[in-house]
């Protein structure tokens, strides 16, 4: 059909009515369309439209289809889960949401932009979509300006209704070994600098510095003595490292398998080999890893599908966005 | 404001005259303003022009007249159900070739209901299309370099540029 030219905003509105699968198929139309899939306003609008239509396979953070598979061994018993988000909450997010930084057990840490006079003010808010409660938390410089040089992790304990945020900052110019640690506990309500002897839910965590478009090594941070140490990747994956995108790697804790709950696990997505591999760090001084699970695309019924990042939820479910 | 006026005359961008009832015109804010500004003054012999072509305006008015009773008085669920069916039929007709015109008109006339309906219809038509068909109807130029295409293909096997 011969068509008239229509403005980009209207094109966006039409695209927001498409199912996620079609949008992903059409992203190769042009750069503008490609960027749509990464645009927060579009993603939220899209999720809203799907909610109105009763579509239940979309999740608003990614806006794509989310599938969840249990990770035990190689048995991929299919269980998909969908998230229904209260409409009023979506409306709230739609107003000024900039970015969702973290989520833990249903709790979200979001960045909002507030206009105050001429200045844009970033505001960081912890929100719980289920109870519709919101708490603003103080921003730190590294949260505001140095995002690639800071690692943030959040832990939400649903039973006790308390959360803790751990922020690790490093200065790229001073070398990766100078990591500063700050924590924010829900009952304290302020960021506190921690030198050592920090007693939080876990004794150490691993960071994945990604710069100049590459992963080079991992960095472990010990909360007890404040030490950092370089950890090498499993030998088997060093060849594929150069091809890894920022989203192709994640670290997580595996509470159910490990005895102490403090072990570090690593998930790697090999796009070329169409396979996820999962590793546990046996000894961090010698960087020895053990592969304990693999999941090929075929196992989970994926064919010719693009994967947009993945994570391991609550230590036992692989969650990925297609 | 005179209450005796029940319908007003408007001109399309092609210069044809159309009648639209006052209650139907209320579905659009700009039309409503036009009514108040122009048509209800006593010495009104000016006919307002709407920047929409005749073929499109016929459809837009048809939609307004159908939806006006419900929008103005509120309606029962069964009416809503019936209206939904009517919308589907309305969009099934020979609308496809003027769909984008209707979309633009609904946008220009601030008619949210018709706008959403037209967006949804366009999206439904798009689902089965190829990437190059989409580019054609939206006048989109493929601005990926061959390296970028290669990279996208590598990251997302199954991704098509045609």
From TrEMBL, chain A:
Any idea where the F-box domain is? 1-46
InterPro entries this protein is in? F-box-like_dom_sf, F-box_dom, SCF_F-box_component
Organism domain of life = Eukaryota
- Alphabetical list of PANTHER family matching this protein: BNACNNG10540D PROTEIN, F-BOX DOMAIN-CONTAINING PROTEIN
Q: What is this protein's name?
A: F-box domain-containing protein
Question: From which organism does this entry originate?
Answer: Acacia crassicarpa (northern wattle)
Classification lineage: Eukaryota, Viridiplantae, Streptophyta, Embryophyta, Tracheophyta
From TrEMBL, chain B:
InterPro entries linked to this entry: SKP1, SKP1-like, SKP1-like_dim_sf, SKP1/BTB/POZ_sf, Skp1_comp_dimer, Skp1_comp_POZ
Would I find Methyltransferase among this entry's keywords? Answer: no
**What are the protein's UniProt keywords?**
Ubl conjugation pathway
Pathway info: Protein modification; protein ubiquitination
Residue limits of the SKP1 component dimerisation domain? 113-157
One GO biological-process annotation of the entry reads:
ubiquitin-dependent protein catabolic process
Quote the Gene3D superfamilies the UniProt record gives: Potassium Channel Kv1.1, Chain A
> Function of this protein?
Involved in ubiquitination and subsequent proteasomal degradation of target proteins. Together with CUL1, RBX1 and a F-box protein, it forms a SCF E3 ubiquitin ligase complex. The functional specificity of this complex depends on the type of F-box protein. In the SCF complex, it serves as an adapter that links the F-box protein to CUL1.
Q: What is the protein name for this chain?
A: SKP1-like protein
């Amino acid at each position: 059909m011969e068509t008239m030219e229509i403005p980009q905003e209207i094109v966006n509105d039409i695209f927001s009515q498409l199912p996620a699968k079609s949008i992903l198929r059409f992203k190769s139309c042009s750069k503008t369309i490609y960027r749509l899939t990464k645009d927060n306003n579009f993603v939220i609008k899209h999720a809203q439209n799907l909610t109105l239509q009763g579509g239940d396979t979309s999740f608003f953070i990614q806006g794509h289809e989310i599938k969840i598979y249990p990770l035990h061994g190689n048995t991929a018993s299919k269980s998909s889960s969908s998230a229904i988000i209260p409409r009023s909450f979506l409306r709230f997010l739609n107003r000024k949401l900039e970015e969702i930084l973290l989520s833990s057990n249903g709790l979200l840490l979001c960045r909002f932009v507030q206009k105050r006079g001429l200045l844009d003010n970033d505001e960081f808010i912890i929100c719980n979509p289920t109870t519709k409660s919101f708490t603003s938390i103080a921003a730190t410089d590294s949260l505001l300006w140095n995002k690639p040089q800071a690692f943030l992790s959040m832990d939400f304990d649903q039973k006790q209704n308390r959360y803790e945020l751990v922020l690790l900052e490093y200065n790229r110019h001073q070398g990766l070994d100078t990591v500063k640690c700050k924590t924010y506990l829900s009952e304290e309500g302020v960021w506190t600098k921690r030198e050592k002897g920090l007693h939080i839910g876990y004794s150490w965590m691993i960071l994945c510095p990604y710069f100049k478009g590459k992963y080079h090594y991992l960095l472990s941070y010990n909360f007890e003595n404040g030490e950092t140490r370089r950890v090498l990747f499993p030998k088997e994956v060093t060849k594929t490292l150069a091809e890894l995108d920022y989203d192709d790697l994640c670290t997580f804790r595996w509470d159910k398998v490990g005895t102490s709950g403090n072990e570090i696990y690593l998930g790697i997505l090999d796009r070329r080999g169409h396979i996820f591999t999962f590793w546990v760090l046996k000894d961090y001084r010698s960087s020895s890893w053990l592969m304990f699970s693999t999941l090929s695309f075929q196992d989970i019924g994926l064919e010719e599908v693009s994967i947009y990042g993945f994570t391991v939820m609550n230590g036992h479910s692989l969650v990925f966005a297609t | 404001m005179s209450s005796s006026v029940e319908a007003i005359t408007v001109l399309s961008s092609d210069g044809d005259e159309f009648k639209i009832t006052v209650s139907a015109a209320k579905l659009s804010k700009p039309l409503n303003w036009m009514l108040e500004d122009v048509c209800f003054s006593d010495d009104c012999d000016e006919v307002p022009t709407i920047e929409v072509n005749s073929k499109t305006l016929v459809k837009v008015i048809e939609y307004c007249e159908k939806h006006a009773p419900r929008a103005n008085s509120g309606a029962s669920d069964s009416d809503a159900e019936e209206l939904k069916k009517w919308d589907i039929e309305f969009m099934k007709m020979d609308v496809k070739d003027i769909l984008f015109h209707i979309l633009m008109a609904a946008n220009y006339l601030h008619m949210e209901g018709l706008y959403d309906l037209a967006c949804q219809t366009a999206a439904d038509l798009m689902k089965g299309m190829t990437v190059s068909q989409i580019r054609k109807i939206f006048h989109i130029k493929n601005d990926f370099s061959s390296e970028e295409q290669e990279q996208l293909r590598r990251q997302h096997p199954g991704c098509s540029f045609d």
